[in-house]
Amino acid sequence: MKMHKGFTVLETLLVMCLISVTLPFLYPMMQQVKTLATIPRINDDQVVLHQLRIDVAMSKTVDVIDQKLQLTLNHKKFIVTFKNDKLFKTPGHEIYIEKIEDAYFYKNDGYYYLHYERGNKEYEVLLGK
Fold this sequence. Notes:
By secondary structure, the protein is of the alpha+beta class. The chain has one domain. Helix content is 39%, strand content 40%. The protein has one helix at residues 9-58; strands at residues 61-65, 68-73, 76-83, 86-90, 94-98, 102-108, 111-118, 121-128. The strands form two sheets. A five-stranded antiparallel sheet has the order 1-2-3-4-5, with helices on one face. A hairpin with a 2-residue loop joins strand 7 and strand 8. The relative contact order is 0.10.
């Protein structure tokens, strides 16, 4: 019995047919994937900012000193600060937001705000009273 190496014409035509049928669906799906790739960062920021708002709301004392947020939460003092493109809480090293150009906290009329920059856009976020 003779062993054949390679594909038959029928197998090749079948593969080409499957590719031609699936290709029109592939392009719109890739466009959606590109669109969805930008959304998670925005959603991640919203989750992180919600957590930061909860920390501010649950803190016994809140103050802004040298553009850093100081919290007393569960009888422990924490400082939320910006360094090395990250907004994080110390002691420890809980990272809130990464890959940002600048961030600082300020107090205005009794309300605490976070100002941060990412990708040539500036964001102002109300954290609490």
